[in-house]
Amino acid sequence: MLIKKISLVICFIAIFSFSFLSNEISASSSNVTDWLNEEEKGENSPDEQEGNNQEEQVEQGQVEENGFMLFDLIKMFFALVLVLALIYVLLKFLNKRNKLFTKVRALESLGGVSVGQNKSVQIVRLGDRFYLLGVGDNVELLQEITDANVKADLIRQDEAQQGTGGILADLFQSKGKSTTSTMKSDGSDFKDLFSGELKKLKNNRNKLIQQQKQKEDRHE
């Protein structure tokens, strides 16, 4: 909202400055034209208005015309400098705001995919780390994403899409397949893949629990 206000103020100042300068130029041009017309009328007057007075007036008119043009050019130059300075300040402000916004984005969700009824897999970014979470009746940490290429793809797609979702699904889609049918088939394959991974993780956890119980029984 603040950016829109600043942009409107800059546009208003620029329009006002150029309209004011154009009015000044047209006014000065009309004054010079009127003066020249009066001089032409004076040439048709009696001989008393001829001679040295006419030459002095013509020279004075040329000097005034040059002075008006020079003054208008100076005003246009300073108006242009003012507009460029305002644009520069606005760009600096936007750059600073983007840096602050990037620093604040320490914890964010990069999207997810549904793998069943009321179940989904989400990617969460915490600083420079990426985590894969299973969300259902409870939230469960599946694994930490450590592959540098995958992390780079996540960052790139997050910057391109800015929270539009679908980041996780896009990572597993093959390049060049952009039709609707292909997207649906890839989505189903992805769901099957993650369902299998979830089952494996649960089985491994159950095995670890059983092994721990067996160790406790042996100690007893």
Automatic annotation (TrEMBL):
It comes from the Bacteria. GO terms for biological process: bacterial-type flagellum organization. The keyword Kinase does not apply. GO terms for cellular component: membrane. It is found in: Cell membrane. Residues 1-22 form the signal peptide. Keywords: Cell membrane, Cell projection, Cilium, Coiled coil, Flagellum, Membrane, Signal, Transmembrane, Transmembrane helix. This is Flagellar biosynthetic protein FliO. It comes from Oceanobacillus jordanicus.
